Amino acid sequence: MARPKHDLPDDDIEYVSKTEMKSEMTALQKLGEKLIPLDKKQLATLKLPERLYDAIIAAKKITANGATARQKQFIGKLMRDVDPEPINELLAKLAGLSDKHSAWLHRLERLRESMLTDPKVVENFVTDHPTVEIQQLRQLVRNALKERELQKPAKAFRELFKLIKQYIPEPALPGLEVSAPEEEDEE
């Protein structure tokens, strides 16, 4: 006896191999693992399901290797129900912000170094930032030069960096506006 053919067209069925499914699940787990180091404010911007959010927070507290591996697998399982695109966007944005932060620190370091080599840079800094204590700035520059000359620990060199840092603020973090989460203060 012949079997009846089903009326379903074969075009609507998408075949996925077991290997593809496993690689997708592994990729989601890896993506979930990247969320563990983020702080609560950054996680709140993603509007994750409560269960996933709680699993990520719990993973931060786990120290045993076996338990950490199980928690990461659990996070990977929960990630199956989440759209990974906003997470990828946030991680890419944070990587860019990290680059901006590094560029800002390098800018401060170059300014400090140029202050030690060119007195005009100190004058320009004072002109650009009239609230700076001129005497303190010049003394830090002198002491940093003396430390370098005598090969002593760079205490004034670090203090000069801190002073410059007060007057040249870190660039704002665009795109990380946090919508007031209700449960953030419970812990």
Automatic annotation (TrEMBL):
InterPro entries: DarP, DarP_sf. It is found in: Cytoplasm. Keywords: Cytoplasm, Ribosome biogenesis, RNA-binding, rRNA-binding. CDD domains: YjgA-like (cd16331). This is Dual-action ribosomal maturation protein DarP. The lineage of its organism: Bacteria, Pseudomonadati, Pseudomonadota, Betaproteobacteria, Neisseriales. It holds the Pfam family DarP. Member of a network of 50S ribosomal subunit biogenesis factors which assembles along the 30S-50S interface, preventing incorrect 23S rRNA structures from forming. Promotes peptidyl transferase center (PTC) maturation. Belongs to the DarP family.
